[in-house]
Amino acid sequence: MGKCKKGLAVLFLLIVGSYFTVTGFQELRSTRALASRGQTVAGEVIERDTHFRRRSGSSYCLTIRFQSEAGKSFTERVPVSIDDYLKAGATPKVKVHYLPNDPKVCAAGQTVEIKFGSLVTGLFMVAGAVLLIVFFKQPLDEQEAAEAVVSEFGKLCVGHHEYAPADARRFPHLDLAWLDAARQRLESHGFTFLQDTEDLTFARDNPAVRTLLRVHLGRQGTGMAALYHLKPQWWMRMMGAKEARVCDIETEFSNGMWVCTGNAQAAGALDQPPGIDTIQLPASTPIEAVVQAHDARVAKFLARHPEVRPLVKSGLEDLLRAQNKLEVIKSDFRKERGVSKAELERMAGVKNDSQLDAIHAEAARLHHEQKPRAA
């Protein structure tokens, strides 16, 4: 089963299994309530109908009319056993069970059958989805894993990105309270908020991880900062994808080099191009600590390179232009290099693993094959 097919299977089992579990629980609760405290009354059969299903056989229903103890008339369609269905063909009268507080919850027949089949089906389907999720991250072979690696790293080779203004109200799934608080913290350190922006290029490549960038200009325009909450959709989180609340700060220098500091800890597993000095702090690092770490690293860089100066950005357009310059540098580096064995080891959290060696070798082969086409 390929990665895409496994993902679709997980999604199907979760959606359908959850539906059957919820409706099955409601069905079990209703039939137990009818059996224990339901009222009985003589009802009239209005209509009989049956539906044939090739796999599960026929289902039988009666449309009944009855009057509750309060004197109100009800007409409901209810499933019945084949015996009660046949009896209803001989006589228009049928025994009806209903809940006095909610007469629409009713059943027809001599006894109330406690129904739990839908609940069991739903639980089995959800259990099947969980099993697939557990094994989803373990591809069947090195070929499949290598293809997944090359595909994911290919998303880092886009180069120029397209940005558009974003309305935070259109991203209710994100932690907007954190974004607001983080903006205030950055502003207290001299950063100026410019605009909420969406990276349309990232959104097209990652439709299940829509996010926005809260963009800021650094003090004296010599730095730029972005806040974002990366929150994959629920089904991705169930398969192990993590959400992250990130602060990224970047400074460009006149010699073409960059100093970048953030708390996107997972991104720290990736190597950076020469000339881009990046540190990713732990995900729990507060905004103030990220700012302080970046200031210290910029000061150290300038002490080592007294002939250079930080480049000043005049506004949003200038900032996004610089951001795209950085993306192109990273893209060219990734196109040329592909993914290294050390990067795979850091992402997998293992070393000297024979299967990982085989995955890297296959990924390198696939990358080499694709390089002429990319060029």
Structural description of this entry:
The chain starts with a helix and ends with a helix. The strands form two sheets. It has a seven-stranded mixed beta sheet, sandwiched between helices. A five-stranded antiparallel beta sheet has the order 3-2-1-4-5. The protein is 45% helix and 24% strand. The chain is elongated and about 100 Å long. α1 (3-37) runs antiparallel to α3 and α4 (142-154) packs across α11 (354-374). The longest helix has 35 residues, at 3-37. With 375 residues, the protein is α+β, with helices and mostly antiparallel strands.
Structural class: alpha+beta
Average pLDDT score: 86
Shape verdict? elongated
Uncertain segments are none
